[in-house]
Specification:
The complex is a heterodimer of chains A (363) and B (395). With 363 residues, chain A is mainly alpha-helical. Chain A is 71% helix and 0% strand. Chain A folds into 3 domains: 40 residues, no CATH class; 220 residues, MetI-like (MetI-like fold); 56 residues. Chain A contains 15 helices and no strands. Chain B has 2 domains: 36 residues; 243 residues, MetI-like fold (Orthogonal Bundle), CATH 1.10.3720.10. A 4-stranded antiparallel sheet of chain B has the order 1-2-3-6. Chain B has a two-stranded antiparallel ribbon with strand order 4-5. Classes of the chains: A mainly alpha (363), B mainly alpha (395).
């Protein structure tokens, strides 16, 4: 379709920056119009956004009113003043180094799990040690650390606990559900299908409501579990159903020959599953599992609705203070960038894994 | 394998734990017993707790007076109406936002998905920026931001923004002109529906004729003409009124015209913008899944680029797209339950109010779950039917 025909003399438009502009930006009249519109849009928005975010923003002030009096950009003074509330919620101020270490532990756990060298059974003890260390740091009560009840947990550590622990504890359950759904035993299959489809058919909010208003009714008299644990159980139940479907995808994508070869060797069901099927199937599903971790990380923000102090709710609490009223956008931009950084890098990681797997497949 | 064994004369063996069928049976009995025990345990605890707290279970509360007001709805409702009617208002509100959201998200997502594959570098980069930003921020946060933009940053009704004549944006929502109650607009509506039906009929007839005789018929243009022409004809028959019901500033607020509440606008905007990011990726990967040879073959047969996209690439891409797209529609519908966070009266927020007022926790949660389960099943069944219709018939 290009107007440059084979016989035309080579001009300065064929290569270099101008050639690129001509081929990729102004290749045809409609394209040129679209490009001009985009440039116009950028000219209208980018400088204004930069001005609001950087040039006219205020970093030091005692309240929204003072901010607005100094300049009309973003009032980052809110973040300077309230960042500990947003990041750690109502955790006792002097003890906030503990949730900080917990965030570091989480990043280390995720980092270790992302590296291929640890893709074997050594991950199980690493995770058990990690979970115990995180619980110890958060609760305290030992090694001279004061006890902090989990009603006071909040902010980023709480978001990480709900999402990462939700995924980790859902994982064994999800494997059983996925195997059960592919089982030849009709009753087992029916139980697993019913569970998975019921959970996947309803929104997470309804499970969280169930956790907050129905779980207390389910337990015998005198026994009580707190709100955080109830929400965590609901999230585990939810994550298990979705992960089960992801794992089922991995089980289905294994060639039939693998099952038949295991049968031919005389392996029993659990030997076949444990030594032949799962190690291969779980490897295939790592990229979609990372994607469901991203979804889980975003979905935990729903605990706002049942009143837990996660990152999202802590951000909302930061501008409730009368002095800081009206600075909601600044708080939202701050937490949005935290969520974005986490989700963006996880999704890039999952894409690079997928590309690596595809390359390995071709070889 | 079992049938061959059955055919041969198998010696009768005593029941043994080494027999996989016997073990299978035992596993199933154990699993069933465990599930039954769990349900019985939870149910008996619940019954005991309900008795201790003197909560009467049952659906009798549905006929009692609700006593709370609902901001908006498709059917008339007042605080004196029953809980049942309040819940129906909620279900209709959920369906309204879900249906409009699905249509708009599909349109926006398809445009962005195709843009990401564009030759135009600027357009492709803008589309991928959109996808990266909106997919990686929680929907709830986006809803809060949209709601804050509308309710805090937009001016009051007196200083309402007026981007187009008759359309006013303010912190009370969006006001727009509506056609008045005139027969002409009813005729136009009937014409529109007739136009769609006739367009489908013409398209079917044209395809049959094409297959039978090889003659083409411009059914696309004819259909467009019918869908646009018949409503105009209906409007002309009704006397061609040009008057519209315009929103007008009177006192402290607008009177007349139609309106979208800030809650509805924020929820719809959030759902559409968020889901479109996911749909864009599905559309993009669907188009990439059609091999390049198909396009080359189509172009060498003399099809134009537009015909190639419409007749060769999109029908094949649709087969790849349809299942993940169904999941996105289901997600959008389930995500509409986040309405409760910004105060749009959907089924979750009304069931939640009902639950808090009456104390009927189990019934309230059950209603929410049943409604969403029913919607999910209906969408899944429709999409499965559609999927079967367009699936490749292998010979």
């Amino acid at each position: 379709m290009s107007a440059v025909t084979a016989g035309s003399p080579k001009s300065m438009f064929d290569s270099g920056v101008l050639g690129w502009l001509r081929n990729r930006v102004f290749s045809s009249v409609p394209n040129a119009i679209i490009s001009m519109l985009i440039v116009w849009l950028a000219v209208m928005t980018v400088p204004a956004a930069f001005d609001w975010l950087v040039t006219s923003s205020v970093v030091h002030a005692d309240g929204t009113r003072e901010c607005r009096a100094i300049d009309n950009g973003a009032c980052w003074a809110l973040i300077v003043e309230k960042h500990r509330l947003i990041l750690f919620g109502l955790y006792p101020y002097d003890e906030q180094w503990r949730p900080l270490i917990v965030v570091g532990l989480f990043l280390a756990l995720i980092g270790i799990s992302c590296s291929r060298r640890f893709w074997n059974l050594s991950l199980i003890p690493i995770w058990i040690v990690g979970i115990v260390a995180i619980a110890t740091m958060m609760w305290g009560g030992v090694l001279g650390m004061t006890f902090v009840p989990n009603e006071r947990w909040g902010g980023l550590p709480l978001t990480l606990i709900l999402s990462v622990f939700g995924m980790a504890f859902a994982f064994p359950l999800a494997i059983l559900l996925a195997l059960g759904r592919r089982s030849k035993l009709p009753v087992v299959k029916a139980i697993c299908v019913t569970y998975i489809e019921l959970i996947r058919g309803v929104p997470l909010i309804s499970l969280l409501f169930m956790a907050s208003v129905m779980f207390p009714l389910f337990l015998p008299d005198g026994m009580n579990i707190d709100k955080l644990l109830r929400a965590q159980i609901a999230i585990i139940m939810f994550a298990a159903a979705y992960q089960a479907e992801v794992i089922r995808g991995g089980l289905q994508s294994l060639p039939k020959g693998q099952y038949e070869a295991a049968d031919a060797l005389g392996l029993g069901y659990w030997q076949k599953t444990g030594f032949i099927i799962l190690p291969q199937a779980l490897r295939i599903v790592i990229p979609p599992m990372v994607n469901s971790l991203i979804a889980m990380f975003k979905d935990t923000s729903l605990v706002v609705i049942i009143g837990l102090y996660d990152l999202m709710n802590a951000a909302k609490a930061s501008f409730v203070d009368p002095a800081w009223r009206g600075a909601s956008m600044e708080a939202y931009v701050f937490v949005a960038s935290i969520y974005f950084v986490f989700c963006f890098f996880m999704s890039k990681y999952s894409q690079s894994l997928e590309a690596g797997f595809a390359r390995a497949e071709k070889r | 394998m079992a049938s061959t064994v059955k055919g041969a004369k198998a010696p009768k063996q005593p029941l043994s734990l080494n027999d996989p069928r016997v073990r299978g049976l035992i596993y199933q009995v154990v699993a069933l017993a465990a599930v039954a025990f769990c349900i019985w345990y939870l149910a008996s605890n619940t019954i005991a707790n309900l008795e201790a707290r003197r909560i009467a279970t049952g659906w009798g509360f549905l006929n009692r007076e609700a006593g709370f007001a609902i901001g908006e709805g498709l059917i008339s409702y007042g605080p004196a109406d029953s809980y049942l009617r309040a819940l129906v208002v909620g279900v209709l509100n959920t369906l309204r936002v879900a249906v409009i959201g699905i249509i708009l998200a599909t349109l926006l997502g398809t445009i962005i998905g195709i843009s990401r594959l564009s030759q135009n570098w600027l357009l492709a980069k803008l589309a991928s920026l959109y996808v990266e930003v909106f997919r990686n921020i929680p929907l709830l946060l986006q809803l809060f931001v949209w709601y804050a933009v509308i309710s805090e940053l937009f001016p009051g009704p007196r200083q309402a923004l007026n981007p187009l004549p008759g359309i006013f944006l303010s912190n009370r929502g969006i006001k727009f002109p509506t056609p008045p109650d005139a027969a002409a607009f009813d005729y136009a509506g009937i014409g529109f529906i007739l136009g769609i039906i006739l367009a489908v009929v013409v398209a079917n007839w044209a395809r049959k004729r094409l297959y039978a005789t090889g003659q083409t018929f411009p059914s696309g243009w004819a259909g467009t003409g019918l869908i646009i022409g018949l409503p105009i004809l209906g409007w002309l028959i009704g006397g061609a009124p040009t008057h519209l019901d315009m929103p007008e500033m009177r006192g402290f607020n607008f009177v007349g015209g139609g309106s979208l509440s800030p809650e509805f606008a924020a929820l719809l905007l959030g759902l559409v913008v968020y889901t479109a990011g996911f749909i864009a990726e599905i559309v993009r990967s669907g188009i990439l899944a059609v091999s390049r040879g198909q396009t080359e073959a189509a172009l060498s047969l003399g099809l134009t680029k537009g015909q190639n996209l419409r007749l060769v690439v999109l029908p094949q891409a649709l087969r790849v797209i349809i299942l993940p797209m169904t999941n996105q529609y289901l997600n959008l519908t389930k995500n509409s339950s986040l309405a409760v966070a910004i105060g749009y009266p959907d089924i979750v927020s009304i069931a939640n109010t009902t639950l808090n007022q009456t104390g009927q926790a189990i019934e309230g949660v059950a209603i929410i779950m049943l409604v969403f389960f029913a919607i999910s099943i209906s969408i899944a069944m429709f999409m499965n039917w559609y999927n079967k219709r367009i699936a490749l018939v292998e010979r």
